[in-house]
Amino acid sequence: QVQLVESGGGLVQPGGSLRLSCAASGFTFSSYAMNWYRQAPGKEREFVALIPSTGGRTIHRDSVKGRFTISRDNAKNTVYLQMNSLKPEDSAVYYCKVRMYNYDYWGQGTQVTVSS
After folding, report:
1. Beta carbons within 8 Å of 37's beta carbon, 6+ residues apart
2. What pLDDT score does 56 carry?
3. Could you give the CA distance from residue 97 to residue 87 in angstroms, rounded to a whole number?
4. Alpha carbon 26 to chain centroid distance?
5. Phi, then psi, of 81 in degrees rounded to 5
6. How far is residue 96's CA from residue 79's CA, in Å, rounded to a whole number?
7. What is the pLDDT at residue 55?
8. Distance of alpha carbon 82 from alpha carbon 60, whole angstroms
9. Of 71, 72, 50, which is closest to residue 61 (Cα–Cα)?
10. Can you tell me the distance from the alpha carbon of 78 to that of 89, in angstroms, rounded to the nearest whole number?
11. 6-49: per-residue pLDDT in tens?
12. DSSP character for 16?
């Protein structure tokens, strides 16, 4: 079965960095685009970044461009989100997602809190 397991979240001061990881299993990882989303308390879940199946041209939401970078290692079945220059408004639960056959699979999420 499809499994996505996020890790790497935590508490960080404004301006700090974190790297999130999402370990995937149960499907042919290298065949699918991968996504990161986030959801803050009381807000809708929102798209953060996407990476195609073979890497290449990535997409990031405007508010994280230049600060966040999505990447993947198909040999390790893992997708990453490098987050630099973190701001309090980046605080949220971060989820990875894969869409297969018009169905979205989600991980359990990892909490990121940016606070002094």
Report:
1. 45, 46, 47, 48, 94, 95, 96, 97
2. 86
3. 23
4. 19
5. -135, 105
6. 8
7. 83
8. 12
9. 50
10. 26
11. 999 999 999 999 999 999 999 999 999 999 999 999 999 999 99
12. -
Reduced 3-state DSSP string for 36-51: EEEECCCCCCEEEEEE
Report how far residue 106's alpha carbon sits from residue 75's, in angstroms, rounded to the nearest whole number. Answer: 21
Q: Of how many residues is the chain composed? A: 116
Q: Which amino acid is at 19?
A: R
**Strands of the sheet with 78-83, listed across from one edge:** 3-7, 18-25, 78-83, 68-73
- The pLDDT score that the predictor gives to residue 58 is 97
Distances (CA, A) of 87 to 22, 36, 99, 112, 115: 22, 17, 29, 11, 8
